[in-house]
Records
---
Amino acid sequence: MQCDVQKDFQALLKVRPLPDAIIHLAWSGLPNYRDFFHIDINLPADLAFLKAAVEAGISQLVVAGTCLEYGMQYGPLAEEQATCPATPYGFAKDALRKALQALQNSHPFTLQWMRLFYMHGEGQNKNSLLAQLDRAIDEGQAVFNMSAGDQLRDYLPIEKVAENFVRVLETPACQGVINCCSGNPVSVRSLVEQRCKERNADIQLNRGCYPYPDYEPLAFWGVPKKLSGLLQS
């Protein structure tokens, strides 16, 4: 892994001139949120690469975080709210953010931590909720198995997520933790029913077939204070 980081760093140094900014989205092994490799493999590798980039002269980092940094906290989640991750994935992301913030003390640079909530759209994991629903509809299945669907989540289409990243990249004065979310809680059931309506699909929803995930609270959503400020400016 260290060898891979060194190769990435060497490739970065060959770029002339160096870019002013890096958008860092890489993170392997998802969605296995509870696997320890997030801590002992991904965390040191990503920190080594980003540290090397900063030391090489990159002045702006836009890094993807996760709402799982908040852990089992309910309701609206603010950007300044304390984190309390309950999974190795959330812990590793939170530790990476804190390490980069500590690095700013010795190597000043702009850090924009884009804390992602729930995304959907082209390229999503084939085992994600809407991807499974679309596959069931395409295959003409009569029933779709799901949880009870009462969970409240914060969803954004991937196009909007990309738009937010570009907006933040172009506004380096907007720094620190940035909740990349809608700010609107939507139930899983409503999300599924809306997709069925969009697809004009007559498929029965077998609600309650699966239990709720035990690594996230029943109801939580983000407060996009900084993004809202950018949209109003």
---
Amino acid sequence: MSAPGPASHNVAERVNYLCDQAMVAVHGTPLADQITAIRQRMSEPLRVAIAGRVKAGKSTLLNGLVGERLAPTDAGECTKVVSWYRQGFGYEVRATLTNGESRELRFRRDDGRLDINLGRFNIEEIDRIDVAWPSSNLARVTLIDTPGLASLTRAASVRTHDFLALGNEDRQSEADAVLYLMRHMHRRDAEFLEAFFDESLANTSPVNAIAVLSRADEIGAGRPDALDSAAHIANRYSDDERIRALCVSVRPVAGLLAETGATLEEHEAASLRALAGIEETELQSMLLSVDRFLKPETSDLLVETRQDLLGRLGLFGVRLAIRKIQAGEAVSAVDLSRILIDASGLEELRALLEQHFTARALALKGRSALASLRNCANDLIQLDRNTGRRLLGEIEQVESATHAFAELRLLHMMLTAQIRLSDDEQAEVNRLTGGGTLEQRAGLDPDATDEQIQQVALAGIARWRQRASSPLLDRNQADAFEIAARSYEGIYAGVAR
């Protein structure tokens, strides 16, 4: 076996080549199916798992990201199993059973929600549920809803640990990246991120984990400044060096506002308009608490309708919507949808997902593939020692020769404080390693000329290579600065092509 030569810089080409070589070695063995799955994974969208403790708001956030109420948010049976949501040409729900068989499941839309019927199957018989849905928001990413950690049902927590291969060095996570939801950074949240994180880049790393301060609208019992307080807390966490070593960023999101903003209906907007018309003193008294809001005598609006509004918006969201209606900023459901989504922090999270996950999709998928191939090679050693060792050597060669993986190492070293950079330098590293156009990576406007891009690239090459040449640097620093210089070389060469 021999790895692709220097001319092959494409991550997918290198990984697929390795899979082809490995398949020759494992043909006719149980490892062949694993190699086929690894290759298939490279052609799929990036897999992003949504994890967190029970009641962290995982399913609600997933629905907000998809823009439809697909994931169940109650405590039903389907929340106890790992559920995949991927783009499909049509509508289909299937269960993969623990014995490997796949079975189609019946489903229906109930009041806008997806209601899945497990039929004759017990939850213990189901390994995972696959939902194929024609949504543009699933075109570049497959979202995976996981059972709550620290669940009262231990089996549900075990499913999440197994899926993410937490604490298991012999397995590779089935997710390429993770959104971890938490109410606050409690000890158990830090323990999860530490379990997901590994000191080497071979397995998990902070480069593919984002922490979400979820249910941000509920801080301080949903007080008016709840989202501002959540943003302050998230910024404080992001500035904490210990937390930066566990995830690439911390962002506040009000998942309920995001989900409802994406799915709000006109009859709900009409109910909110009716509430906004109540005399101000009575209205303010009514909005002080949930109990007062639901008192029958406070409004002609049915208590059941008000209960539904609370379930869809929470008290914070109801207050926000009414305030915007009274200010003349919203009339229709479309107006309110825009306001709710803007307030939720969903778009900021989408931008972060694009910058850190989607733009690096090939590198993240390739890294997952190499980790899985490494496990296969270790298993192959038990069958054919020499061939297994050669495959391990090929994997190491590809990993060291592919600059996309080197950029992940650079980001990894920065996040884990193995190298010290100024704030401006950290922003530059994020930009350099974040994918995007040549103009974006160079920090220039979209209409920048080729000459301007090359001038910036040459200056970057000189600056970082001069730093890399200092005899006072340790190995990590010298490697990191050399990787940055090579990234600028790639930008320069990209213009020339």
---
Amino acid sequence: MKIIFSDKKPRDECAIFGVSRNSNAAQLVALGLHALQHRGQDSTGVVTTDNINFFAHRGMGQVSEVFSDKKVFNHLKGELSIGHNRYGTTGESALKNVQPLFSELNIGGIAIAHNGNLTNTNFLREEFIKDGAIFQSTSDTEVILHLISRSKGDLIDRLIYSLHSIKGAYSLLLMSKDALIAVRDPVGIRPLVIGKLNDSYIFSSESCGLDIIGAKLIRDVEPGEIVIIKNNKLESIKPFSRSYLRPCLFEYIYFARPDSILDGRNVYEVRKKIGHELAKENLDDKEKIDVVIPIPDSGNASALGYAEKIGRNFDLGIIRNHYTGRTFIQESNTIRDLSVKLKHNPNLNSLRNKNIALIDDSIVRGTTSVKIVEMLKNCGVKKIHMRIASPPVMYPCFYGIDTPNKEELLASKYSLEEIRNFIGVDTLKFISLDGVYKALGHKNGRNSKKPEYTDHYFSGDYPVELVDQKSGVFSSQLSLLIESK
């Protein structure tokens, strides 16, 4: 069997962060974005307002690169600010797509930052272009600005109209000259939390963004909720007749930082419990295994939980280099084969002559797993029993996660035994979808009639209509222009 895939893990596309009523608003936003850097490393930006004018600084690269000159903050005036980290996917990586986006409308200036992906972007965009609209970016977020511009009433009236026009997954931050507004889609697919720092309200994609500035977590923005901060008072509006919480399951498995709290659950504890459930589903592993080794860092917590449950030692048999960044070496066939060691290197004393359980969070395209397994075999490992802390990824995502097409997903085309042979391990097991739900506190596993999470990667159950995909617009030439965050 010959299978060729790229090395990439799925990527989340962005983080958003906002601060109200604070004289250091821009600096606090930059710090929050730094804590959320794992959600996007392609570009970053901050917009502020002093209640009269708007000020912006955006750039390609990570937060520490774009905001390396402290003098930048002298120009970012005002006590209201929002910021954005972006990871580019299907479209181009360009400064014009760096958020927050800003537009001057007849009701005043509006800045917007978006985490997620709209599933009717192309449909709406084609309609706007037919009517003569001009787009300045290739971001689906700009569609929201066009909807706000073309509707009537004050900003909240226009926003509600726009929300009823769009479909998909979105957590939004909007900023006018005197208000900060947060929005979460009616299913709550993408995370968004509210915090408080003294008298300042804070919004963050994850609670770890609050921690870095010393803010206190208040609560999550509820699904389908609009939260308005004006004159330092919080107002909540729920414009949808029906909303229900069904957050992205992959946030708990892989994307969120382990020290974050999402919808009341500590991500690290969830991942440990996933490891417990993975062990429960493979009770005979104790007799096969000498030591449990995670693929760092995303496999660490699940590996620790798995080791606890089977009664075997947890060891760091693979050491991760956290300072790889963008490689400066031009790739060739020889160098490409060595690329895995840019991030992972074996800890020989933990591996030699051992039967190991190798724990990872997921297998998507599989090639990185192949390289790591080959590396471990060269270190003298006896047997490798690979255990995966998610079910097989069989379906792509259209809600703001960069996953491949279905044809590129290993588990969508090949059997468990074929995947095992391809990766080169002695045994391979995935946790069941019921097992993940049990780790999240649902004793009976997944309720097929009313699932608690957006789990389409594993089930093919998409909770929000995929308008562009069903209409065929997604595959048109226009789709090449549409950029998810």
